[in-house]
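Continuing from the previous page of notes. For each protein in this section, the sequence appears first, followed by its structure tokens. Read the first protein now.
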Amino acid sequence: VEVNGDVTTLQLTSLLSQTEYDVAVTPMYDEGPAAPMLGTAITDVVPAPKNLQFSEVTQTSFRATWEHGAPDVALYRISWTKKGENNFKNVS
């Protein structure tokens, strides 16, 4: 990305969560490029889903709904078990 010489900040977008990035900022002069300033940054962990709710409750089923924690989530693994037990069932 190229920006005007008076710009000193830039929001980098469309990055992946929990990913390390190397960044180089290279000043460009009429005579050509100068030595770049190098840095490393790591994007944050994907936040957990939000607003878990249950509806359409019957004697044998219910619907679970939630809001995305982040747009780059590849999938959700849904697990359930009777309260107090540890034999989880899964669906992906």
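Done with the first. The second protein uses the same format. Note its length before scrolling.
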Amino acid sequence: MARILLLFLPGLVAVCAVHGIFMDRLASKKLCADDECVYTISLARAQEDYNAPDCRFINVKKGQQIYVYSKLVKENEAGEFWAGSVYGDGQGEMGVVGYFPSNLVKEQHVYQEATKEVPTT
């Protein structure tokens, strides 16, 4: 059952956007390694569990590895969030991409510095 949910999760994100559910933007800018934010910045390990509050975020389990693609530029009193992907325990399961609080993870390896400032959409 969880495998089916993971396969359809990217569609759920699109459904949220298509049906006009407007959510507050987390930040107006993000830091990436490239202009499209597709290259991996770092590999991080979750220090505790995190349950996603809405479709923009990902669920993370303690000990799980996360590939980080961008880091939101902190604004006002908002928390600091990063965007990344986690993968299921079984082989062949799709990766799930979304935001998570940066204070819940510890970077294990930095592949390249996030020096490109890109506007968020």
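What the second structure shows: Confidence is low (pLDDT under 50) at residues 1-20. The helical segments are 2-18. We return to this in next week's lecture.
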